[in-house]
Write a structure and sequence with these properties.
By secondary structure, the chain is mostly helical. Helices cover 80% and strands 0% of the residues. The protein starts with a helix and ends with a helix.
Length: 233
């Protein structure tokens, strides 16, 4: 009996909802049709854009000037991609230039289908990861050298007064403020990872002078960056 009553109630409820919704059906259809048409148009535009970009990318190997359209279309997007990660306009611009140069060099050699949008972001991601690896390697080697040179070690602290990124940023700022005769050998050593003899050839000075300038530069940097290095991490 209870089952029959429930079934009767549900049937009555369904008829009530049907009476309420029937006048709204034309309105709902009038809303849904334009939305469906808009989605279809957007999909067609997206596919058309992809086809155009694939054609432009393929054409670069024969007509390098075809790359200009892709460059203009994606430059700001890739610049913002990097800026959100490094928060430094100059670094973001450098990485953006590297990305587009790598893309142009690759497309000039290739003659194949490339879905440009995800591909250029992959190139940018690779450039970013390379940048991060270089920076991490620079930090490890540079702080390690300072530690070995001055026999100082960071003091652990649960407060984490300075993050590793903040510490490295302040240290980098101190390095860039050194006189050029000390700054350049240090940059060539820790940024470019050149040996003493390679730095000597680059700066046109004896290897012994290079070693002396690096040692003195580290000593000056140690004094200037002492608050940063002594700050607990």
């Amino acid at each position: 009996m209870m089952i029959a009553l429930n079934a009767s109630f549900e049937a009555t409820l369904d008829r009530s909802w049907e009476r309420l919704l029937r006048p709204l059906i034309p309105l709902l259809e009038s809303i849904a049709k334009p939305l469906a048409a808009e989605r279809e148009h957007a999909e067609e535009s997206r596919q058309s854009l992809q086809a155009e970009e694939r054609a432009l990318a393929r054409e670069v190997s024969r007509r390098p000037e075809s790359f200009q359209v892709l460059y203009d279309r994606y430059y700001e997007r890739i610049l913002n991609f990097f800026y959100r990660r490094v928060s430094e306009r100059e670094t973001a611009e450098d990485l953006t230039s590297q990305t587009f140069l790598s893309a142009l060099e690759h497309l000039a050699r290739a003659n194949r289908e490339i879905h440009f949008r995800p591909w250029i972001y992959r190139v940018a991601t690779n450039a970013w990861l390379s940048h991060e690896r270089r920076r991490a390697r620079w930090g490890e080697r540079f702080l390690g050298e300072l530690g070995r040179h001055f026999l100082s070690k960071p003091v652990p602290s649960p407060d984490h007064a300075l993050s590793a990124a903040e510490r490295m940023g302040l240290l980098r700022k101190a390095l860039m403020g050194l006189p050029p005769r000390y700054r350049e050998p240090l940059l060539l050593r820790y940024d470019e990872e050149l040996s003493d003899s390679e730095i000597a050839q680059t700066l046109e000075m004896p290897p012994g002078t290079v070693r002396s300038l690096i040692s003195r530069g580290l000593a000056i940097l140690r004094r200037r960056a002492k608050p940063v290095l002594d700050e607990p991490m």
